[in-house]
């Protein structure tokens, strides 16, 4: 299941792994820092256009960012199966 928290967690993890601040990513993506913060906290889902902008701002293809989200989904599914 694709939910806002999973999407946001994956985006945040990629950003932090790359050592890039929210201010830099949001600036490159052309969105507000508070908008990015809301996405990372799972309060908002990015539109497809914003998703592509974020992937570019993170220096990766959108498909690679989607793979990171898929990894988060798998982690969530594994947790559910353990219960």
From TrEMBL:
<dbReference type="GO" id="GO:0003700">
    <property type="term" value="F:DNA-binding transcription factor activity"/>
</dbReference>
<dbReference type="InterPro" id="IPR050807">
    <property type="entry name" value="TransReg_Diox_bact_type"/>
</dbReference>
<dbReference type="Pfam" id="PF01381">
    <property type="entry name" value="HTH_3"/>
</dbReference>
<dbReference type="InterPro" id="IPR010982">
    <property type="entry name" value="Lambda_DNA-bd_dom_sf"/>
</dbReference>
<dbReference type="InterPro" id="IPR001387">
    <property type="entry name" value="Cro/C1-type_HTH"/>
</dbReference>
<dbReference type="GO" id="GO:0005829">
    <property type="term" value="C:cytosol"/>
</dbReference>
<feature type="domain" description="HTH cro/C1-type">
    <location>
        <begin position="11"/>
        <end position="65"/>
    </location>
</feature>
<dbReference type="GO" id="GO:0003677">
    <property type="term" value="F:DNA binding"/>
</dbReference>
<keyword id="KW-0238">DNA-binding</keyword>
<protein>
    <submittedName>
        <fullName>DNA-binding helix-turn-helix protein</fullName>
    </submittedName>
</protein>
């Amino acid at each position: 299941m694709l939910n806002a928290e999973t999407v946001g967690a994956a985006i945040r993890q990629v950003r932090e792994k790359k050592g890039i601040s929210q201010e830099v990513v949001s600036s490159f993506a052309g969105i507000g820092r508070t908008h990015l913060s809301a996405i990372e906290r799972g309060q908002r889902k990015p539109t497809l256009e914003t998703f592509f902008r974020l992937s570019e701002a993170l220096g990766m293809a959108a498909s690679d960012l989607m793979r990171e989200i898929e990894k988060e989904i798998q982690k969530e599914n594994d947790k559910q199966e353990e219960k």
